[in-house]
Structure formats: structure tokens, C-alpha cells
Amino acid sequence: MQTDDPSRTPNNPDVVVIGAGSAGIAAARRLLAAGLSVAVLEARPRIGGRAVTKRLKGHPVDLGAHWLHAGPINPLVRLGRERGEPLRRAPVDGHLFVRGRKGSRADRAALDRAFAMADRAMTQEAKRREDQPAAKVLPPMGPSGRRVIEVHGLVSGRPLDEVSLHDFPSMEYSDNLFITGGLGAYLARLAGNLPVRLGTAVRAIDWSGDGVRVETDAGTLQAKAAIVTAPMAVLQQDAIRFAPALPPGISEAIHGFTQGVYEHVVLHWPGSPFRGADRLASLIGGHREPPGLLTRIDGTPFHFFELDQPAAARLDSRDRDAPARFARAVLAEHFGHRAIRDLSVSLATGWRHDPWSRASWAVVPPGFYAVRDTLKAPVGDRIWFAGEALSRAQWGTAGGAWEEGERAAGEVVTTLTAPR
Ligand SMILES: Cc1cc2nc3c(=O)[nH]c(=O)nc-3n(C[C@H](O)[C@H](O)[C@H](O)COP(=O)(O)OP(=O)(O)OC[C@H]3O[C@@H](n4cnc5c(N)ncnc54)[C@H](O)[C@@H]3O)c2cc1C
């Protein structure tokens, strides 16, 4: 049983895992499987980190991670298949509306061509040129270019002129899946038996002596090693003090990332014009085009209207209802006010303001390509970093975080069980 009862987790474990998100869960499972004792310390009163499923009107809705990207290499897909989890393929055909009317074949072909041109340019130029803003190598892509730039900016977490050209194409993004019941709920199942202390924020890690002393508001734990999975944006705020200070290379790598922003405005819209389940919708030709719209999630009346970083930043200066009004205004512009009569906004997420995430994921700006790999080196053979930010092929994702949690734990096992 996962627990927030401190008596169920050891005070002097072999390894302390900081954070019970995807990376922390993966790390803890791997360590326990190798016979090591573990305490997982989680600041929030729940597990899952940036993956959490909430029930809305009886339907499970993911408020953070939802897609299982890159199916062939995603460890959460592999594990899901082994466990017989209810995985389903993400459809590859999406909706296309031009000024509220179904787009033609020619419209779709133009959009597909523009995406292909952008992908080719970024992949090829990343091999040929020095690192620079990914946006700089984009060719003229015709009228569909704006849409392509917005979509890539959304999935990157920042506009493409703030994203490393060398980092961008390393991401695998094809063969996506979903899991019925939600990705957050799936991670919670995977954490089922772990020794987790909830509501236990780590304030400091002292690695001046043997092993590590991990300080929390509820006392100090002594361990041989620690795996730190707190998000980069949280570490940048010095939420965890390291004594002695981290080596300059590691500290610079942590501070090299920028904050990726991607927020869901969750719509309940039974009468939406979108048919089928789980389709992305492109709405083009308007004054404002939503960069991301995932429709009829698992066939329910729920949809995600996604906010990218520029939109979220604009809305930050306004009142709490601004994201809901914005989503309604954009959809009304495309489909008319009558069409959105039965649309209600259930909630808008605010991961960028959450003290335990401060961003949706970590972004590598131009010139900082090396930071993901730099952080893979252990500190004093006692502290390992893990989490989505370290993954090369699955950055920014729950699958990448899991992969990195397993990697870090594997290295800890090797280090702690090696003959001295
Ligand atoms: C809106 C949104 C949509 C997304 N969509 C997708 C998607 O569709 N597919 C996908 O794969 N990914 C998606 N992502 C990204 C995905 O959620 C993350 O990449 C992944 O969940 C990160 O896992 P992690 O273990 O690295 O970090 P986290 O899940 O953030 O886990 C770190 C944990 O550390 C805890 N913590 C932080 N500081 C401390 C401390 N001092 N002491 C103790 N605990 C601490 C946090 O509370 C957290 O639980 C999305 C993210 C957001 C926000």
C-alpha cells in the first residue's frame, strides 16, 4: 500500500527518492526490485506529480499528462502491455476546420506539406549547423506556416525562437496512445505498493559526510544515496538546499533550462461539432487559432483547449476566469455563439504557478543542448538527478521521466551493490 504514514517508510533507507511523479515511481520500483530499502518523499498530498486524473461529471479527466507519446520506445506503454492495461491507439486523422467549415482535401494537403517542410528543415539543419533558435531554420511554408509554428511552439512549451534547434528534433513524437481511465490514474496504480510519505517536502540535502542527510519539515532521514526528481523549475528556486553546494557544472545545467508552459482549459461541450473520439482539431483561418484542441476525450463530452506559453502569459495579467473567457471567445469566433451555447469550462490548469512544478516541463533554450546529458552524472556517487528534463528522446513526457527514473535507479543499484 502506498502510504503517508511515516512509520511505514524507513528512516534510514538505502535510498531516498525525492518526488513521487513518474520518475520517482519508476526509480522506487527499480530499487525495491533490486532488494534495496527505499523511502519516497513527496511534497504534495498525492502521488503522480504532473500526471493526475480527476473525475469530472463521472468521467476521468487528466489534468496533466494525457498522451502516451512515442509508443515503440515509451516504457509506460511496454509496461502497460505487460500488465494488460486498457491502452488505445491515438487516431492519426484529425479534424480540420477553416473559418468554422470543414477543410477541403487541398487545405489538409497544404497543412501536411507545411508540417513536413518544417520537420525536414529542423532535422537536417540540426545536423548541419551550430545550435540556434529552432525557428531560424524554418523555410517559408505558405499560409499554413503560422499553424505549424504555433503547434510546434505548443508541444515545445515555448515559442520556437526560444527552443534549441539541436534539442528539438531529438524528440520522438509518433505512434501515440492513450489509456482509458487516465494517465494519472495509471501512474497511481503503478505506485500502489510503494513506501511514500506524502506531504513531506524536502528542504535540504547534506552530502558533506557519508551518504546523504535529507531534511524535511517532519525530520531528517539518513541514506546511502538520493535520487532527486523534483522539476528543474523547482530546483531553480532553491527549494532544496544542497550542502555543500552542487558542483558548478551541475548547478549551471539546472539553471540552463527554461520553463515550458502548456495548460489545459477543460471544456465540457456535448454539442461540439467534432465527431469521433480523441481527435486533434485544427481550427484555422480565424483571427485567433487555438494551437491545440483535443476533442471528445475517450468519447466523452470533454475536450482540452490548450494554452501555449504566449497565451498563458497574456492571461496571467487578467482575472481567474480569463482562460475560460478566452477559450469561449476563440471557439465562438470559429463556430459562432449559437454553437457554443452548451459549452461550459470545467477548469483551467495552472501548473506554471504550482510551487511543486512551476512549469509544465523543462525546455532547452538555444545553446544549452548539453544540459540534459550533464545532469545524468551523479554528484559524489551519492546524488542522482532524474525526471523528464533529462530524457533525450522523450523529453518533457511521463515516459521520458519513467525512463530516467529507471536509469538513475539502475546506476544507484550498481553503485551500492558493487563490491568495495
Ligand atoms: C498540462 C500538461 C500536459 C502534459 N501532457 C503530457 C502528455 O500528454 N504526455 C506526456 O507524456 N507528458 C505530458 N506532460 C508532461 C508530463 O506531465 C511530465 O513530463 C512528467 O509527468 C514529469 O514527471 P517527473 O517525474 O519528471 O516530474 P513530476 O511529475 O513533476 O514529479 C516530481 C515530483 O516531485 C515533487 N517535489 C517537488 N519538489 C519536492 C520537494 N522539495 N520535496 C519532495 N517532493 C518534491 C512534486 O510534487 C512531484 O510530485 C504534460 C504536463 C502538463 C503540465
Automatic annotation (TrEMBL):
Catalytic activity: L-tryptophan + O2 = indole-3-acetamide + CO2 + H2O
Superkingdom to which the source organism belongs: Bacteria
Gene Ontology terms for molecular function: tryptophan 2-monooxygenase activity
Biological process according to GO: auxin biosynthetic process
Organism whose genome encodes this protein: Microvirga subterranea
Protein name: Tryptophan 2-monooxygenase
Residue span(s) of domain Amine oxidase: 23-103, 166-412
The EC number(s) this enzyme carries: 1.13.12.3
Keyword flag Magnesium: no
UniProt family annotation: Belongs to the tryptophan 2-monooxygenase family.
Pathway: Plant hormone metabolism; auxin biosynthesis
Keywords: Auxin biosynthesis
